[in-house]
Fold this protein.
Amino acid sequence: MKNQKTEYRYLMPAVVVVAIMTQVPFLLTIIFSTLRWNLSRPDLPRKFNGFANYLYFLKIDNLSQFPEFYSILWQTILITGITLLLCSVLGFLLALLLDHDIPGGNIARTLMLGPFFVMSTASGVIWKTTIFNTTFGWYGVIAKALGFTPVDLLSYHPLGVIIVLFTWQWMPFFILVLLAGLQGIPQDLVDSMRIDGVNWLQGIYKIKLPLIMNHMRVAVMLGLVFLIKEFGLILVTTAGGPGTRSYTLPYAVYMQVFSANNVGRAGALATMTVILTLILVNLLYRSIVKRSAQYS
Amino acid sequence: MTQKHIDQVKRSMYRRRIGKKSALTVIVYLIAFIYFFPILYMFLSGFKTEQQAVMPSLWFTPTLETYRKVLSDPTMYQYLRNSLFQVIAGTGVSMLLGVPAAFALVFGRLKHPNSNGKFYLWFITTILLPPVAVLIPLFTWFQQLNLINTPYGLMMAYIGFHTPIVVWMTHSFFSDLPGEIFEAAELDGCTRLQQLTRIAIPLARTGIFSAGLLVAVFIWNEFFLGFNLTGNPTATLPVYLARFREQQGMFVAQLSASSSIAILPAIILGWMTQKALVKGLTMGAVKG
């Protein structure tokens, strides 16, 4: 019993600090989302507004013209979804490649891991100026050398550019985790697979992939959680543009607070971002658990 | 089949294996090189003069002029200092809070037998919370308390967001330790504090150390809160890079040099953590 007090003394400081800095503000955000509160209009009183802020985004007046919220929601899902898909497919293939015994394979793996630790604003700025620039970047120079006219990818394919950069940044993490999974498959299983005459493709798709599904789950879930809140890279590459074509939910929240000064609406958007995160995490978790296998 | 034939077959099989292996090696190195190229090119461009950096090329005579220029810029120093403060203070306090909490969650006996798991789960779910969900209240608090122009507001936010990550990772490393050691230590009259500082931390030190390094990298790279919760005197390096174009203009060499300074520590620390990263992140999830 005397010890129990000590346990709580170890646990509680962390719980209190985390609660004050994350949970309390989140509850306040939910409360703000029901208020009419505009920072640029201090003359209007803050008052309870019910679900008006949510309805402002969600309400569909006529079916031919959907509110902007739906396209932002769709862009968020599209960016996150395609990035995760590319990361898991390409990451798995590269992990298979790195699973071979290659001289100096560690160096190759370490090089590929690099982009994961690069801050998103730096990678955005670097890609934008040294690669994607149509006159001074590698893309422009190579395209001209091959006889194409380089188009400004950032304004013609903003989502594509963002997806490529996110994939570049997150695939190393997938490679790392999936490679750990592949290396954890017992050697006798691989040997018996060979003896049973399983061909290369079957071996990968029917045996290795189900066996590392748990690792895949970890990688995809963490990727999802971190990608959905990504903000810096979008700000420095496309700044949400052209128009709102590369807005994501976090970016829209930022614009609502600092550009529209509308605390109530921003709160509603932020709350919906959290709900979206929870829904996607749940969906993914379920769909992946179905396909996993265990070795015993 | 004579011995000669067998030798021949063996040799050709060997050759095919070698051939396959060298082909694989070349492919892997090629992919790794292309993958790392943007970072590599950025490092190289930092050693160019502004005129050399305008057009992309890999052949040039390196110069330290650009680095000298970037490092003699007092604003760069200010951002660097702010970033260092956030990393050291944020990581330090997160560890001080998170490691004992993880210890209590793994080995402690809380009031209800389920409490340990519940608290652990609670920490994990806070990792799911995107920072946008807390931005508005934190921003209004910090403005009222005038914390925007001091580094302490942002530091508190970082502590709140990174303590759960410390708990999560150290939890998995503590779970590796056999519980009997602590029972034996308790019988020998070892207090809880001694069990933590003399037994648990030394035994799990590599894991704890890498958890700290990883959190340091996360804080060093964090942009959203750093961008929105700071004023000009307190902004961190990622904010500097994001504002580079509007403030300094399009100077590729300078941009490359300052990005290199911002990126290099994170990449090196990150490389040091890679093994523990996989273990700390996957263990809890892969088993459970």
About this structure: Chain A has a mean pLDDT of 85. Residues 209 and 292 of chain A are 8 Å apart (CA to CA).
